[in-house]
């Protein structure tokens, strides 16, 4: 059974000993004037004690003991308890005011709907501050604000046609890092690159009901962390890759089509093998010009690994408007038909071709990994 830490209990307000005294004389049907007379004190002194304006000292405690028969220690302890409780109430109020000030600053930076959706924010102010500091891996408000001043984050992929609200991105990336720190996978061996891509291609081709779980299982077995965290509003981010004990990939699943999912996944995997294995501490935003080269490199490798160049040369002239032709090529090379159509559409800027079923078979993974 859990025990209560009495020392941490703070009353809503301190009870001064004069309240006990008032209860006692009322129970005895004694007036303040009568009590003052028997204690040989001015009535004003008794009145001030009852109102909490005057403390009970040793002399008064002994007089009360003599008149009321209640030990002097009781009154002295009541006075001491009042002083302690009063101080604790004051400290609690000061802490409340301070926490409100801290939370006011935090709220101006974070995206509340996002963190509420993820179950991070509760009705407990102090708990909210503590968990936000944990999410952002900081110990104080200065460190928290500093996170939003940083120019470099772990690699992330965004839609070129969409804008990203900076604070939303910072919240998403830091929450992803926090979630990733709680995952544990096998040891990573960069020499197993080909096996990783081959295994993932097979999972993508089959696109079974539990595809996201299968992707996670495969990547985990090769020492790569994988998680899904939906994006906040005004943050058209698709994915991020970074190092968290092991190489880590997180996708927002903003676009739930299998071809978009596959390309984003391979893009992030490409970052791991092209860049992160050589510098697992490097963090940056791909919006900056100097990083565009690495983004292009990841795109190029992802395209080649999804559909090898020699394969694409042979099939790019087929009739992609004919479903049976696409399905035949898909079966022959073990590449999901939607991935083939996606490549064709992008290269030819033609998105009006007949759509093959492109949906990812499972989206429950998102909820299970929040």
From TrEMBL:
SMART domains referenced in this protein's UniProt entry, alphabetically: HTH_XRE
Parts forming coiled coils: 277-304
Keywords: Coiled coil
Keyword Disulfide bond (UniProt): no
CDD domains, per the entry: HTH_XRE (cd00093)
Domain of life, per lineage: Bacteria
InterPro entries per the UniProt record, alphabetical: Cro/C1-type_HTH (IPR001387), IrrE_HExxH (IPR010359), Lambda_DNA-bd_dom_sf (IPR010982), Rad_response_metalloprotease (IPR052345), Toxin_antidote_HigA (IPR013430)
Transmembrane segments: none
The HTH cro/C1-type domain, residue ranges: 21-75
MF terms (GO), sorted A to Z: DNA binding
SUPFAM superfamilies in UniProt: lambda repressor-like DNA-binding domains
Record carries keyword Coiled coil: yes
Family: Belongs to the short-chain fatty acyl-CoA assimilation regulator (ScfR) family.
Protein name: Putative plasmid maintenance system antidote protein
Protein source organism: Capnocytophaga canis
